[in-house]
């Protein structure tokens, strides 16, 4: 017999059982404990579990928040929606229950390793059913599935069969790193980009420091984080200091913060997760007064590529923004979709119409090209 349950803490699910559903995941049970402990404002965490005869067979992370419909809009579209929000406060905000996590690189449904692949569609259906039931208990009418990989046809089919509508999500950038040296990587890029990066590397650079503890510089790190967040085109959640320190403390050996010093001034930091399979760039923050002079973004990029090469790490996962630069830097992109359904049919129809104006690619040509390709 199949049963489902929703929990308010991931600690209600055994660590080994959760990780068995996500073999090889870098953002594993420990990562979600860090996120939960950080108590990020405006988010309530939920964890969905499917049991068969009392044995865990599938899990998924979920969250509750007030969602702004223009979260992934940038440029002229964002300026319009901000004016609209000022004139009519709350018009673009809806209570949302979503499978996935705003803190994770992808939305995966975890299936226990012993479960035959043929049974996955049934378990996906159960997870969606559990999410809708849990949302109903909270009085939330809008349910979504966040960042479904374009190649995951089973997830997409399960969402559509449950009556969910879809729209493009933000693609995730990935750089494959089969190179024997940074010079070989540069040789794979177009001539103009290669020439530009080599010129940047010849200029004096900052001093690098690899840290597993940043307590002594935490105020400076958060200053850089806040400044970078304020300049971002897309709207993101604000991470508290406990998220950064928690990752470094709990995920020892798998989390590191690279500091970039100009003299005694902390000019940038880069928080990364890493194992033998991938390096995930979680956040890069920098001081704009030093960014252009020291080419901090490109230096951090090449630092990460060099680390992958030195440690024979095949994948560099580099996030969901900066598409124009990442196209130049040789990235491939993994397409993603957002699926949604509102319990009220009229509102559901309106949201399906509004999505044409709030698509993330309408105001970013580079993003539009990437979404078109993926």
From TrEMBL:
<feature type="domain" description="BioF2-like acetyltransferase">
    <location>
        <begin position="191"/>
        <end position="300"/>
    </location>
</feature>
<dbReference type="InterPro" id="IPR038740">
    <property type="entry name" value="BioF2-like_GNAT_dom"/>
</dbReference>
<protein>
    <submittedName>
        <fullName>Predicted N-acyltransferase</fullName>
    </submittedName>
</protein>
<dbReference type="Pfam" id="PF13480">
    <property type="entry name" value="Acetyltransf_6"/>
</dbReference>
<dbReference type="InterPro" id="IPR016181">
    <property type="entry name" value="Acyl_CoA_acyltransferase"/>
</dbReference>
């Amino acid at each position: 017999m199949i049963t489902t349950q929703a929990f308010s803490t991931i600690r209600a699910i055994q660590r080994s059982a959760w990780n068995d559903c996500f073999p090889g995941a870098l953002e594993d049970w420990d990562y979600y404990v860090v996120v939960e402990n950080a108590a990020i404002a405006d988010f309530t965490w939920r964890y969905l579990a499917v049991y068969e005869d009392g044995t865990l067979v599938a899990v998924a992370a979920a969250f509750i928040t007030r969602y702004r419909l223009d979260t992934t809009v940038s440029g002229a579209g964002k300026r319009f929606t901000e004016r609209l929000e000022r004139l009519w406060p709350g018009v673009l905000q809806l209570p949302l229950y979503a499978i996935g996590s705003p803190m994770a690189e992808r939305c995966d449904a975890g299936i226990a390793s012993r479960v035959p692949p043929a049974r996955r569609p049934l378990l996906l259906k159960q997870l969606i059913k559990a999410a809708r039931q849990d949302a109903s208990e909270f009085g939330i009418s809008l349910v979504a599935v966040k960042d479904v990989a374009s190649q995951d046809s089973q997830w997409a089919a399960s969402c559509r069969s449950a009556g969910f509508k879809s729209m493009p999500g933000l693609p995730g950038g990935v750089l494959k790193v089969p190179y024997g040296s940074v010079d070989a990587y540069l040789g794979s890029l177009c001539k103009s980009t290669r020439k530009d990066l080599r010129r940047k590397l010849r200029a004096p650079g900052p001093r690098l420091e690899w840290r597993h503890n940043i307590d002594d510089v935490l105020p400076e790190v958060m200053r850089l984080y806040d400044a970078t967040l304020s300049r971002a085109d897309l709207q993101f959640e604000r991470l508290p200091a406990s998220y950064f320190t928690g990752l470094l403390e709990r995920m020892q050996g798998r989390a590191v913060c690279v500091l970039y010093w100009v003299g005694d001034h902390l000019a940038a930091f880069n928080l990364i997760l890493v194992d033998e399979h991938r390096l995930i760039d979680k956040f890069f923050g920098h001081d704009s007064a030093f960014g252009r002079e020291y080419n901090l973004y490109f230096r951090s990029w090449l630092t990460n590529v060099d680390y992958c090469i030195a440690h024979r790490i095949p994948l560099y996962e580099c996030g969901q923004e900066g598409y124009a630069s990442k196209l130049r830097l040789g990235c491939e992109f993994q397409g993603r979709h957002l699926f949604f359904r509102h319990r009220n049919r009229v509102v559901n129809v309106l949201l399906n119409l509004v999505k044409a104006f709030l698509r993330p690619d309408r105001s970013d040509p580079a993003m539009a090209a990437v979404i078109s390709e993926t």
